[in-house]
């Protein structure tokens, strides 16, 4: 109730704006941003109150079906924060940035990654999807460009020609993945977050 009653200050708004423009923010950067926003707007700052600060923002985002969510990177175990649109639980979150064909490629890439043994899909396997697209066939060069955009926009991560879901994607699409890949999606026994790798 205290959190629900808390006012959204300029510091909260500034923090939210940066998070939204970043797409995803690493935990240490979020803590620095929290301090900066509080000091800039001359509101009380406590280094251990980031979660409370975010809870206040979330209470005001609730009617908009949005939420700041915390997720853990599978690469390094670090916390990350992303603003999630709860009203959109599918890959449609990406619809404003990508064409229908590119979204189909993403869905098929997601299938490869999630259904794989290790949570990765090779660039070769993804390039081979170019001929299997129903919306419109893509040239391999086009697929390479789209993959590059998925990595730049933090939907996919790439290591040595192998692709996996970026932490941003896991945070934003957790419910979609859990409901669409029920038989294979798994959660970590320790932190109870969705695990891909």
Automatic annotation (TrEMBL):
Localization annotation: Chromosome, Telomere; Nucleus
Nucleus is among the record's keywords: yes
Protein name as catalogued: Non-structural maintenance of chromosomes element 1 homolog
Domain of life: Eukaryota
Pfam families, alphabetized: SMC_Nse1
Stored InterPro entries: Nse1, WH-like_DNA-bd_sf
EC number per UniProt: 2.3.2.27
Catalytic activity field: S-ubiquitinyl-[E2 ubiquitin-conjugating enzyme]-L-cysteine + [acceptor protein]-L-lysine = [E2 ubiquitin-conjugating enzyme]-L-cysteine + N(6)-ubiquitinyl-[acceptor protein]-L-lysine
GO cellular component: chromosome, telomeric region; nucleus; Smc5-Smc6 complex
Keywords: Chromosome, DNA damage, DNA recombination, DNA repair, Metal-binding, Nucleus, Telomere, Transferase, Ubl conjugation pathway, Zinc, Zinc-finger
A GO biological-process term: double-strand break repair via homologous recombination
Molecular function per GO: ubiquitin protein ligase activity; zinc ion binding
Name of the gene: Nsmce1
Organism (species): Oxylabes madagascariensis (white-throated Oxylabes)
Role played: RING-type zinc finger-containing E3 ubiquitin ligase that assembles with melanoma antigen protein (MAGE) to catalyze the direct transfer of ubiquitin from E2 ubiquitin-conjugating enzyme to a specific substrate. Involved in maintenance of genome integrity, DNA damage response and DNA repair.
Subunit structure: Component of the Smc5-Smc6 complex.
Family: Belongs to the NSE1 family.
């Amino acid at each position: 109730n205290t959190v629900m009653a808390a006012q959204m200050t300029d510091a909260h708004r500034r923090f939210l704006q940066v998070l939204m423009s970043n797409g995803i923010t690493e935990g240490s950067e979020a803590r620095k941003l929290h301090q900066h926003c509080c000091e800039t707007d001359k509101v009380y700052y406590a280094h251990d109150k980031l979660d409370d600060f975010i809870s206040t923002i979330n209470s005001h985002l609730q009617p908009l079906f949005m939420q700041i969510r915390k997720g853990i990177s599978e690469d390094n175990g670090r916390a990350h924060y992303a603003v999630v649109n709860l009203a959109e639980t599918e890959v449609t979150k990406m619809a404003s940035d990508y064409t229908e064909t590119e979204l189909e490629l993403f869905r098929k890439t997601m299938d490869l990654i999630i259904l794989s043994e290790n949570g990765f899909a090779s660039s070769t396997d993804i390039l081979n999807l170019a001929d299997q697209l129903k919306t419109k066939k893509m040239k391999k060069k086009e697929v390479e460009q789209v993959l590059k955009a998925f990595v730049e926009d933090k939907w996919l991560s790439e290591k040595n020609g192998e692709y996996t879901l970026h932490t941003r994607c896991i945070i934003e699409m957790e419910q979609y993945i859990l409901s669409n890949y029920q038989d294979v999606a798994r959660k970590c026994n320790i932190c109870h977050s969705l695990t891909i790798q």
